[in-house]
Amino acid sequence: MEEQLTYEQAWNELAAISKEIENETISVDELAAKVKRASELIAFCQGRLKATETEVGKIIDGMENQKEG
């Protein structure tokens, strides 16, 4: 997976692959590669969402600790 890939880029590429599959514009020869790439993009997006959730949780915890202190 590319180092510079953003969540938005991954999501857009995933949407494009999905549309190609739905519209049946992918050849049988390309299908396996597209499904594999979609799987990689899904894993990337899930990882980014989890990392963001963790970071936001830390920020909120820090803000709550400041209020109490």
UniProtKB/TrEMBL annotation:
<keyword id="KW-0269">Exonuclease</keyword>
<comment type="similarity">
    <text>Belongs to the XseB family.</text>
</comment>
<keyword id="KW-0378">Hydrolase</keyword>
<dbReference type="InterPro" id="IPR037004">
    <property type="entry name" value="Exonuc_VII_ssu_sf"/>
</dbReference>
<keyword id="KW-0963">Cytoplasm</keyword>
<protein>
    <recommendedName>
        <fullName>Exodeoxyribonuclease VII small subunit</fullName>
        <ecNumber>3.1.11.6</ecNumber>
    </recommendedName>
</protein>
<dbReference type="InterPro" id="IPR003761">
    <property type="entry name" value="Exonuc_VII_S"/>
</dbReference>
<keyword id="KW-0540">Nuclease</keyword>
<dbReference type="Pfam" id="PF02609">
    <property type="entry name" value="Exonuc_VII_S"/>
</dbReference>
